[in-house]
Each structure stands twice: as C-alpha cells, then as structure tokens.
Design brief:
By secondary structure, the chain is mostly helical. Helix content is 45%, strand content 0%.
C-alpha cells in the first residue's frame, strides 16, 4: 500500500483520528485506501477514450503507487494524504475545521485533474512510453472521412 497509518500524522492529529474512528483502525485503513484509489484514478489513463491517445503524458500509475518509503513522490503523497483525510473527516467533525479540510481537498483534486489533463506536468513521475510498433493496432485520436449518402426512400 502506498499510504501507511504513520503517514496520516502529516495531515491530521492522532487524537483527532482516535476521536473520529473510536479506535477502529479499519476506518483509518479504509480512508487511506479510498484516498489512494481516488488519487490513482486521476493518474491512470483511460485507454477506452480516444482523448487518452492525443499526445499528452501518460503516467505509470503502477510504478508511482508501488514505490515505498522515501522513494514515493512527495507531492503525490501529500495530495493522496489530503484526499484520505477528507474521506476520514466525512465520518465526523471532531475538533476539525471542516471548511479548511474541504478547501484543501478541492485544491488537491483540482491539481490532480490538471495533471491528468496535461495542463500540469511532473517530469519526476514515471511515464509510460508508447511503443511505435503497437501504434498501428491501437485506435488513433482522430478519424476522418464522410458519411454515407442519405436518401429519402
């Protein structure tokens, strides 16, 4: 798992996690898993959409989220923790400024969308390099031609 329970201390105090979860570590692990999965969804290209093949950078989400310890990208880790915090805060509002958590969640998801759309790039993240031999068998982002003649019959 990309995130650990110890990482959670970077975005939320331990006593707050304890109050929200009533000591149930499964709730903490569920929030961490949800944050990781949501962050991963922004970075993985949807190859079923033609726009995924339009030339923007494709990030290797498997390599990014399989990194451990200090090999993890610090910015991706921080955004992932912020999103995980949001998933935990939804359970309860114990001594947490709800609007501040919501604002940080919104900023993290906006940045991840910008990264996924190609408006922002990170050269420090592993990329998927397209194989030129496979390009002939994959769909192209654009198609051209004309429609068949329509006749009123």
């Amino acid at each position: 798992m990309f995130l650990t329970v110890e990482d959670f201390g970077q975005v939320i105090y331990g006593y707050q996690v304890e109050q929200i979860t009533d000591g149930d570590e499964n709730l903490t692990l569920q929030a961490l898993a949800a944050g990781e999965e949501e962050t991963r969804s922004y970075l993985e290209a949807n190859t079923n959409r033609l726009s995924a093949l339009d030339g923007r950078l494709l990030y290797d989400a498997v390599a990014i989220f399989s990194a451990t310890g200090t090999d993890r990208n610090a910015l991706i880790l921080q955004h992932c923790l912020t999103i995980a915090k949001w998933h935990l805060v939804q359970l309860c509002n114990a001594d947490i400024i709800y609007e501040q958590a919501k604002d940080r969640y919104d900023r993290a998801t906006a940045w991840l969308k910008s990264l996924a759309n190609g408006d922002t790039t990170m050269r420090s993240l592993p990329l998927i390099t397209p194989n030129p031999e496979e390009e002939t068998t994959t769909r192209k982002p654009f198609s051209y031609g004309s429609r068949k003649k329509f006749r009123y019959e």
